[in-house]
Amino acid sequence: MGHLKLEILCLVVGSVVALLALNIDSALANTGSNADEEGGPVFVKEPPSKVDFSNSTGAEIPCQSRGTPQPEIIWLRGDGTAVGDVPGLRQVLASGALVFPPFRAEDYRQEVHSATYICLARNSIGTIHSRDVHVRAVVTQVYDTHGDQEYIIKGNSATIRCKIPSFIADYLDVVSWHDSDGNVYKLDNRGVFEDGKFVVLPSGELHIKDVRPEDGFKEYRCQTKHRLTGETRLSASAGKLVITDPQGSTAPRLSGDTQISGFARMGMKGSTFGLICPSQSFPPGIFKWYKFTDGSSRQPVQLDDRLKQLGGTLIIREAKVEDSGKYLCVVSNSVGEESVETVLTVTAPLAATVEPAVQTVDFGRPATFTCHYQGSPVKNITWMKNGKRLPQTEAVIRIDAVRREDRGMFQCFVRNDQDSAQSTAELKLGGRFDPPRLTFKFREEVLQPGPKVSLKCKATGNPSPEIVWELDSKKVTNADRVQVGQFVGENGEVVSHVNITNVHSNDGGVYRCTAISKVGSATHTGRLNIHGLPHVKSMDKAQVVAGSGMVKTCPVAGYPIDAVIWEKDNRVLPINRRQSVFPNGTLVIDNVQRNMDQGTYTCVARNAQGYTSRGNLEVQVMAPPYVRPFSFGDQNFFGDSAEIQCSANGDTPIKISWTFQSIGFGAALNKLNGVEITKTGQKSSVLSIDSLTAENSGNYTCTAKNAAGSSNYTASLTVNVPPRWIVEPTDRAFAQGSDAKIECKSDGFPKPSVAWKKAAGDGPMDYRDLKGSAPGMRVEDGNLVISAIPKQAEGYYLCEANNGIGAGLSAVIYISVQAPPQFEIKFRNQTARKGEPAVLQCEAKGEKPIGILWSRDGKRLDPKPDPRYTIREEILSNGVLSDLSVKRSERTDSALFTCVATNAFGSDETSLNLIVQEPPEVPFGLKVLDKSGRSVQLQWSESFSGNSPITRFYIEYKMSKSDWNSGKDRVLVPGSQTMASVYNLRPATTYHLRLVAENEVGTSEASQSVTIITAEEAPSGPPTGIAVEPVDQHTLKVTWKPPLREEWNGDIMGYYVGYKLASSDKPYLFETVEFSREVGKEHHLMISNLKTYTEYSVVVQAFNRIGPGPMSKEVAQHTAEGKPDHAPQDISCTTLTSQSIRVSWTSPPLASANGVIKGYKVIFGPASSWYDEKTKEIKATPSSEIILHGLKKYTNYNMTILAYTNGGDGIPSTAVSCHTEQDVPGPPTAVKASVMSGDAILLSWQPPSQPNGVVTQYTVYQRTVEPKESEATSQKIPSFQTTYEISGLKRKERYEFWVTAHTAIGEGQPSKSATTSPSNKVPAKIASFAEKIVATHRDEVKLPCQAVGVPAPEIKWKVKGQMLTQSNRLRVLPDGSLLIKEVTRKDAGDYACKAENSNGHDTIMHTLVVQAPPQPPSISLAGATGTAITVRLKSPSDSAPLHGLTIHYKQDFGEWEATQIPPNMSEYTLEGLNCGTRYQIYATSYNSIGTGEASDILNTRTKGQKPGVPSAHKFIEVSQNSVTLHLSSWDDGGCPMLYFVVEYKARHQSDGWTMVSNSVKPSGNYVVLDLSPATWYQLRVTAHNNVGFTQAEFEFATLTLNGNQVGPARTNDNGRGLLLEVFPWLPEWVDYNMIVAGCAMIVIIVVGLAVICIAVSRRNRGPESFRLRDEGLYAQPDMRGMTLKREFRDELGYIAPPNRKLPPVPGSNYSTCDRHKKGMNHPTWNGRRPAAATGVPHTYEELANGGGGIYYDDHPPVPPHAHSDDSSLYSKPPNGVPGQDEEICPYATFHLLGFREEMDPSKGSNGLTLPHGSTTLPPPGHGHHRGGSQSAPRGSNTTRYGRGPVGSGVVSSVAGGGTVGPNGIINPPNHVFSPEYDDPANIEDEYGYNSPNRRGSLGRRSMGSMRTVPIPESPSPPPPPPRPSDSPNSTPSHSQMNQSNDSKESNELSEAECDRDPLIRNRNSVSGGAPGNMSTEEMRRLIENRNQNEAHSIPNGLTPYDTVNV
To answer: pTM of the predicted model, to two decimals?
Structure first.
């Protein structure tokens, strides 16, 4: 309707429209003239699709474009509305940039800072939009990240995550991880970190492979970087690993979340991804990754440099879009398997390009734009033209015929959920096509009849337009008086005119000239008015389609015309809403209906004089046709006939036509494809097909048309055609191995399916599916394809084609395969026993004849030279069988035999590996890895297995006194092992062990035996007198006495006190207590930090150097009682009466009682005042039920229950509520009787103050009291009504009134009575009562003031004494009440209502109390301690009672915590705070309304400072080999100490501190062990408390071996001063260090050459006794000319060391042997030095002492006392102190170098031993570790056992265990066979097991404590050698920091240097002689004889108590 009206208005103002059109066309013409120079807008700098910024930085989003003319930039929101400036928050610059300035957090606006924006650029050519710009501002917030705690089974891979708050997670990236050792694992530029064990994944997780126990001691912190601000910070808390030992075998187990949902990963192309597979199992699982290729099948992930698997994690570097998909991780072990799926989506940035970018197309020609896009994923494609959305969603947009309106800017947009992109193209019109433009238009005129009239229009355009004239919408043609002409002027203008001669009034009307060309049109309309009578011209019949609109203008001539109307059926229109008539004579009808609008319409024109003219218009309303649906049906077969009828309804005439796909059927096409069309009526047509063919399939459309419109319907015809051959298969032959393809193609509808089958047998029958017939056989598009056709593919094949129509097609063919010879088995193994015959067979199948050739190890086999070989052939039906026979198999027959078969088509071969088997050879290399008191661990090398796997080994062992026949025992070992242990041995017993191997053929000979002596054991008895007593709620005191003396088994070094919960199955927690040497002294330990009133089990065990003894029996004891931790449970309450409630409960859990519950306390009070402690009552009861009496009626009570013990009151339960029952109510509070008139009174009252229930109604009583009393009458009033009007009263009588209230229980007490009498004089009286009204903040309140009086009283209100000024918020209601909206605190106060009339006045006063959230409290500091802060609080006074206060507090960088306190508390102490820490504190108050504003923040801190450094003399206590640190001497600074870090180094050491421990407990003393005597050290101690740490360095010197102090160290210039004195001519620039190094190198070369010469001369020319022998391990010289005999060697054998080493006694020197007390020299022999140039392993060379000279050729200086005779040497020790030489060191043991670290497969470098020249140090494993650490090993970056400088003293040893003195005197041991130890890591390599060319190791070793043989000249020993850890290259490692008592380096003063036999106490008693019946004296003489004859003896001999490396 609106559109039609607009057309009418355009007609009315036609001239104005014409002028506007002229101007617009002129502008367009001008634009067209400059089109070549103009260009549409194109973005130069397009905004990004995503902009994130911080509120502290702000952001600027650029948007620049180019074009001609210069485009305008406008910013839009996502909904298309324009964006304006928001002051301070958003601004659009003149440059087009959108700016977001920095803003405060409270100024954040979501519609500004989290919105989608679009940049629009436009000029006169067109408009373009940018991609969607998603803007998101991030408000800076306080956040912390935290390391996760991961629980992991040892040996698995762990993943530690960095926990990031969700609100900041999108902007934080994990860039690195830091552990507590200072290691940094930082992501590289490829987004991953990997160093073998540690991997940082791109998603930020820290992946730790093969978790070990030492990994659990570290802490890991993640470092994050804020992408917007660049801020980096470490996590507030560290992640840790909680490592557990496996409890049996477990199947792989994934995390709970992973099992449910798996993982999803998304990221950009080119990024690095880490797909994790978190699993735990034991044994650790094996991980395999697969990728699903087509949704169902999976393929293993092919690993390369880009795709790597690290443990269970799949790393994908430089990800591609093709990497997207579903991945499956399968983890399995021997128990089971588990899997998890991960979906990876790799996205690529979107980009779009439209081609062509600029396209110029001629008018009417087609145009095409193509959008090329990249990136992934692409969700949709949209097009825009000049900023308007187009319906196209494809990548190509086509315009069939370009019109003028098509020119402009086209844009293609591609989008997904995260990104979008766009590209721009411009469409220009080509050539010089200009639309028509009217350059001259005729004018409207008013004329008199008679003269001539000429109307002219001029138009231009390209091509030239044609001008058409119309009069009243009818074309003007030439007539008698009318001529129409047109011509082209000189300038190309088209000029057209209408000439009318002798114009009549009927010639008037509306004229229109229209210029038309193919590129457009231009129109001008004007009216020509001719004076005359009205005349309505004839009108043609109008045909209108039903439902459309009709517009008709009445063609009126004549002038002037007063009015034009329309009539229908003699009724003036309009007669309904659909009709409209305009003054210019236009009739408009909307939504034309046939039954209402069809008919004759009359136009009536009238002038002012009343003359009229009428004209009729016939309107026919036509209905468009509608085609009824039709169908061919489903069953249409080839050759059948088909027929369908198309019928339509609608107005006739109707034309029906048919189309098939795109071909129209007409009369001439009726027979096309057998189709016939028959018209069966005016509205129907039949289409028939006599015989259906495949060509008839398609869509048939019937179209019906009439004058009103058209309609169509389409039906689909499907012709089912049976199959027919296109290519029929035939017989084929193929060469074996070629690719075969047999075609089988057919046609039909539906398309036939082609299937191939193969005959199961040799004949053409029993066809079966191809599956499994032959590899590489498949069907492709109906063709049978066989890749590399094998022989078994030969046979009959059937090809079938079927589509369900008819019987189908089939064809049988035969495929023959011409095959070369073939062996079914290409390789096989065949075994034979040595000495037995063997037959090798090969059977070749294929086309005969076939030739067979045999070869052996690649050489042609000819049986003639070797009669043991025989070849025989047999011809078979399908090939040849050849046999190769071997008569007697030998070891040399083990070879690869090849059989080659050849025929005309090719050849093939098969291989047979003949294995000749025999019994295994003797095992060799048997050596001892470790031993203990009852077991020994052996290792050996596997010998030749006899070509049969060794099934088992037998370890045979016996005691030394037994023989191998009767006294041996056996241990069975699986043949796959070369390491085993023998158990159940006796301690301190000599055993012989040997090895036997066995396979399926037989048993080997026994190996050479080795000899061991088992070690001592740990204590065999527990401590005694154990007692446990409680000290307080968290502490137990344990006392005990040592075990029985005979059960010590060594010196007790300390005790392990273990404790645990008595009910727990977890292991004990142990603490270590050092041993007190006071006889009979009772030991004790305070165990703290225990649970309250909990029973603990305590055990105590003693330990010595070997290990801990048995535990004592458990002693159970409870800690003292405490307060219950839990409240009573299952609390229920039952209302009994209106004043009593029963409360019952159950006891809290027994585990939380923390003692014996004495009773319970019930705290109860009204719920409405529960916050007020004064309203609460407490009742105690020993039972679990109580009845509360004397309660308020109908009141809701809260109650909590707590349990109490002797330790105090427990935690109260959560409050429960119970409501007392209803009762009869109290009386109404007040009653008023107000006179209303002479016969009426208004009675008002207030509800009862104690309703005692829900008031259900009131009863009003009245009676007459004057002049006489009458009976009372009553009236029931609803409970909501508190006034009652009583009428019908008498004026002269006095009445009494009272009121009662009712509840469900009954009627209550009556109120006070009110009396009054009615009167005609009614003064003003207020019926309402003065009240105290309590209102809630911001609520609406109504203050009542109901008044009566005659005349009606005037109501006036006063507010706080001032007259009320009404407003929208405060206004007086019609009933006199005052309404206050949105009450505030200021509204509180007195409100007076006054009612006044001429007879009197009355006033009431209301008091309004406004309750609001409380005002903020004030908070100040009252005091602070190290762990607590006391604050002073002042609660605000307010109208609403306070319910309580909340104190909020947090430490810097911590989370806020809160605690609630009662409202009346003025001070509160926050306890349990960190010492010396800054805190922020504020408080809030709350009441029933809500929580008020917060107070100011109080910034304060707890007391405390960093630890204070003590003085050195109080802190350090020095001894010979250790230093005791008195940790209690440190000042804790007011904060408890956390732990200490202890490091030290030798003072001359330039770098590398040795870490002793980084977690020393801050209690008692701490001992640093293993120091060298008489050595200056630097000690660095770092003390930690909550405030921080303090680091201090101290210097000290250990005591000498004599216990003396070392003097102050002199300044050491490294000998430069002495060098300048000797060589003063040396210049200053000479580096004397290089001189010394050069001289040392020359000396080393000379000495090395000398040693080589001596060794060669000994071997070749020396006496036999002096030569180096090759007899095996123990045949070694260097023993003063002595070579051990074979039987002595066998008896002694090899003795392994004990397997463990326990911590020393804290605070003492564990190496206190008598040789230390004598101050003896302790040279140590280095077994790690490389061999001499001869390549023969050397004997040990001597290491230097700390300060002695270098003695290679001369004896060291002889001390004065050494020149005594032999007897003097045995009457007193060398230092002259008698008696001390009798002391022995009974429990000393040797420690094999590297055994614990190098031999243990679970430690070190995968169980490998280190050769002597190794420079790589594997990480040491854990040693004995119980309680506090007392010592720690030293690391070295060279070899594990470093060498010091060469020192004095040379030591040799003999087999009996003695040492050789300087003059060759043997010092015998205290027993016959002392333990002897070799270096097990080098037994085979260095000591020559089973190798005649290797030297043994016994030549130099410590031989125990042999002292009885006199030594003629015993020099005084020099100071001990330096520690290897004193080397400047010594650096600590993390493993060393976390270890306690690992094995020490061999040149330490360890128990290995003072090994003694504990059973021999007398130095003069020597039991037994040397092996082989050789006495000690004979051995001494033998050595003396050798000393006299040996030219190259060891210079210095041996010194008593010397030790060597072993």
So the answer is: 0.36
